[in-house]
Design brief:
- The strands form four sheets. This protein has a five-stranded mixed beta sheet with strand order 10-12-13-15-14.
- The chain is built from 16 helices and 16 strands.
- The protein has 460 residues and is of the alpha+beta class.
- The longest helix has 57 residues.
- Helices cover 47% and strands 16% of the residues.
- Helix 2 packs across helix 9 and helix 12 runs parallel beside helix 13.
- Pfam families: DUF3404 (PF11884), HATPase_c (PF02518).
- Its main location: membrane.
- Its EC number is 2.7.13.3.
């Protein structure tokens, strides 16, 4: 009965524990053997080192080997070179030599006492004040600058694993492998493509699933994507593509709608003027000569149809691309003409000539002034300034709004008063030109901001 229980426990233990090395590790090691490593360290050179010159704990004070009283005495003595009553007898030759009270110990003494009580190698303590090449081989691996100093770049866990006789080490993307009497160091660009080609994954974790364990490393087969996951990913990709296509279609339709309504809004003024002229012609139609009555009749019909079209089209969208052609614009001359059209005044900090997209900017300012004249109260005023590469135009009037939120006014664009529509035109144009529109008050002020340069800067 005991034999059966023992066999069952061994079988269960074998199922629970990972395989120590195996075909995955052997296949990867075989492929790595065909590659030239970045660094090679002969094993016999590593074995010739005292184990204490590899152990990471050797760099810390020897709390377990010496009482605190002696460590404090060593520290005070190396600082002051005073009395040596409490010093360990075995360290008196080095401590007295460091204070100039005795000759330097021979190399054999350093080999017999490789680790200094306060941490680090005895050779490093001596070489700090008395450089000599005879003691370079007695330095700790983290104090060396030769080929063996590469081991000093390993962390504490990997150094402990090396001392335990492990054959695989992994740190910061570098893979160390002991093979054919050499420690071989492979960079990430060497071993990772091989591991990917073999379908294996290396991980330095110590928990979780592990098919093969080599020291602190786990080697697992790369999981293959199941067809259900591929189908799910394909479905998600198709949904995203359809969503993107629908959004693009919605955006295009919206752009076209804005273009039509902007065109309608801008044509309303000349259409109204033509309507007034057509009414005068209609009133005097009977007094026109017969030869002109037919042409005038066609003109009146065309104006009526155009007026109908303008009234029916309530949607607009800015052109998909604006011709942002910059021309030299004198602010004083431009503001004088713009304000005269609407009976407004302006103030200007200083006269200057800027490189501006004149057509679109004049269209935006004209809309703001028209809105202020039609929907606000006198006086209408424009304040212009140029600060930090930006043109700032503030159009204000004496009126007040119940709610100073630009989004609320923009929602009025679908109604017939035209206020929100004109503001929507201005905001859309400014966005396309890299600027912005803001609302503040009272008094009601619309601030137009647009990046621009002095004309002299563009010429240079």
């Amino acid at each position: 009965m005991r034999l059966i229980l023992l066999l069952c426990s061994l079988i269960c233990y074998g199922m629970a524990c990972p395989v120590l090395a195996g075909p995955l590790a052997d296949s990867l090691a075989g492929e790595l053997a065909k590659q030239a490593p970045e660094h090679v360290l002969p094993l016999d050179e590593v074995q010739r080192l005292d184990r204490r010159l590899i152990a990471p704990d050797s760099l810390h004070p020897g709390w377990q080997r010496y009482p605190l009283r002696q460590l404090q005495a060593i520290y005070r003595y190396q600082q002051e070179c005073g009395a040596d009553n409490a010093l360990p007898a075995e360290w008196l030759p080095l401590l007295r030599a460091l204070c100039g009270q005795a000759s330097a110990p021979p190399a054999s003494w350093f080999a017999a006492h490789p680790i200094y009580p306060l941490g680090g190698s005895s050779a490093a303590r001596w070489l700090a004040g008395y450089p000599t090449v005879e003691l370079d081989d007695l330095l700790h691996v983290r104090e060396r600058h030769d080929q063996l100093g590469l081991l000093g770049e390993l962390d504490d866990d990997n150094l402990d694993a090396l001392l335990r006789g492990e054959r695989w080490l992994l740190q910061s993307g570098q893979l160390w492998l002991l093979a054919d009497g050499q420690w071989r160091c492979y960079g990430a660009g060497q071993w990772q493509p091989l591991a990917e080609r073999l379908g294996v994954v290396l991980d330095s974790r110590v928990d979780g699933s592990c098919q093969e364990r080599v020291g602190w490393l786990c080697i697992n087969e790369r999981p293959a994507l199941h067809w259900q996951w591929l189908a799910l990913a394909s479905s998600l990709g198709c949904l995203l593509l359809l969503g993107w296509a629908s959004w693009q279609r919605w955006r295009l339709l919206r752009e076209r709608r804005i273009a039509l309504q902007m065109l309608t809004h801008e044509l309303r003024t000349p259409i109204m003027a033509l309507s007034g002229i057509s009414e005068e012609l209609r009133h005097d139609f009977d007094r026109l000569p017969p030869s002109a009555q037919q042409s005038v009749g066609q003109l009146l019909g065309s104006v009526a149809r155009l007026h109908q079209l303008a009234q029916a089209s309530r949607h607009y969208l800015a052109a998909e691309t604006l011709e942002d052609e910059r021309v030299a614009v004198s602010l004083a001359e431009w503001l004088t003409l713009a304000c005269e059209r609407h009976g407004a005044t302006f103030c200007l900090e200083r006269e200057m000539t800027l490189a501006l997209p004149f057509y679109w900017l004049d269209l935006a300012l004209d809309n703001l002034l028209r809105n202020a004249s039609q929907h606000g109260r006198a006086p209408v005023r424009v304040c212009a300034s140029w600060q930090a590469g930006r043109l700032i135009l503030a159009v204000s009037d004496g009126g007040e709004l119940p709610n100073y939120r630009l989004a609320t006014l923009l929602r009025r664009g679908a109604r017939a008063d035209g206020l929100g529509l004109g503001l929507a035109i201005v905001r859309h144009l400014l966005r396309r030109l890299g600027g912005r529109l803001a609302l503040s008050g009272p008094p009601t002020t619309f601030t137009l901001t647009l990046p621009c340069q002095l004309w002299s800067d563009t010429e240079s």
